[in-house]
Specification:
135 residues; mainly alpha; 4 helices; 80% helix
């Protein structure tokens, strides 16, 4: 049986590569939409909004998994709880943003999406300040 060898340099480069691929996907989509012309403006804005919401959900899912080593924390349980809360808050905000761009009327999709995502971000930041104040 061969042991599995993990290259630490390759593991460290994976998030960077993923981010570059996301950026290239956004740029390629925007260029394609621009080349299609104003006839597909609404569909293009909806597609980019849905992609942005999905990107927020992807990174929100990574927040709880990015835990510091427990030995460096004063209260590891509180820290983990906060990261999970922030991750869930941003995940739900990203889901709301995605659904707003997918299904809301064209004139209201951006304000609704921003309100949902901004609200979830405000709740996450408020929780961070609350935890810090009570520590």
């Amino acid at each position: 049986m061969n042991p599995v060898h993990v290259n630490p340099e390759r593991e460290a480069a994976a998030p960077w590569r993923r981010s570059v691929l996301f950026a290239l996907a956004f740029l390629a989509t925007a260029v394609i939409i621009m080349l299609l012309g104003s006839r597909y403006l609404e569909a293009g804005q909806r597609i980019l909004g849905v992609m942005a919401g999905m990107l927020v959900m992807y990174y929100a899912n990574a927040v709880p998994k990015a835990l510091k080593p427990l030995a460096k924390l004063k209260n590891p349980a509180r820290h983990e709880s906060l990261q999970r809360f922030v991750g869930w808050s941003l995940l739900l905000g990203g889901l709301g943003y995605t659904l707003a761009f997918a299904f809301a009327p064209f004139n209201y999709m951006n304000p609704i999406g921003m309100m949902l995502l901004g609200g979830s971000l405000a709740i996450a930041i408020g929780r961070c300040f609350w935890i810090r104040r009570s520590a």
